[in-house]
Design a protein that fits this description.
It is built from 5 helices and 15 strands. The chain is globular and about 40 Å long. Bound molecules: citrulline. Citrulline binds next to loops.
Length: 253
């Protein structure tokens, strides 16, 4: 998997009205946008072509574009997000995604957030969470299995999405929370296990063998350095206030 493109969306002034469980204060729209711009600059610096959409004021979570679609080489699935307040976002993203991929749209009987979908080569690991249900995973599997992908459902106890606590970081390695470390699905990988107090840094983003990781998590940084890959740290403190992280802010393909 090698990325050449990303789709992102500028955070709206209404950003603080989105969904959150974080309880660490309200984000400032301008500081949020600054952190977002730094993120886009990192993607550009890594050679990606970035399409940035205008803010969607009616959808304060809409800059978390990852949840609205899943991109793969053969097609893109437009999800039916688990949170009712986010469902309208897909109508704004589908026309953009369809410029790049054939799209399949999930039905309204099924629910899925892209933040629950972890793709490692031809394998999908999909979190069963408050946002993604079994019907969503079934519909997803029906669309991708014909292209040779396997789909494994993972019960996620804590955290918003699977990728809040498990991500692929290159070199056959996953970074994951202590609670996920024993999961049979991840036994075939080398593991970087997050310290409890640094679980947020599990949302580290792999782009073509460079790692982008949130700044302020020294234990995780030390562990990531053992992989010997380039690492870029960036401040996501405002993004975190709305339960967001690095993977959430782009669709990569
Ligand atoms: C939400 O609760 O839907 C947003 N405030 C945060 C979504 C983060 N998305 C992601 O991790 N993929």
């Amino acid at each position: 998997m090698y990325f050449t493109h990303a789709i992102t969306r500028l955070p709206a002034d209404s950003v603080a009205s989105g969904l959150t469980t974080a309880n660490i204060g309200a984000p400032d729209p301008e500081r949020t946008r600054q952190q977002f711009r730094n993120y886009v600059d990192i993607l550009l610096g890594l050679g990606l072509t970035v399409t940035t959409l205008p803010p969607a004021a009616d959808y304060p979570d809409a800059h978390f574009v990852e949840d609205t679609a899943v991109m793969m080489p053969e097609l893109a699935i437009i999800t039916h997000p688990g949170a009712p307040s986010r469902r309208g976002e897909v109508d704004t993203i589908a026309p953009v995604v369809s410029r790049f991929r054939h799209t399949v749209r999930m039905s309204s009987n099924a629910h899925m957030d892209g933040g629950d979908v972890l793709m490692i080569d031809k394998r999908f690991f999909i979190g069963l969470t408050s946002r993604t249900d079994e019907a969503g995973i079934r519909e997803f599997a029906a669309a991708v299995e014909k292209f040779g992908y396997s789909v494994t459902a993972i019960e996620v106890g804590a955290g918003l999405h699977l990728k809040s606590i498990v991500n692929y970081v290159g070199r056959n390695t996953v970074i994951l929370s202590e609670d996920s470390a024993d999961h049979p699905a991840f036994r075939g990988f080398n593991q970087i296990v997050l310290a409890k107090e640094e679980e947020y840094a599990g949302n580290t983003l792999w782009i073509n063998d460079t790692l982008i990781t949130p700044s302020g998590y020294p234990d995780t940084l030390k562990k990531l350095k053992t992989l010997g890959l380039p690492i870029i740290e960036t401040d996501t403190s405002e993004i975190r206030k709305m339960d967001g992280g690095l993977t959430c802010m782009s669709l990569r393909f």
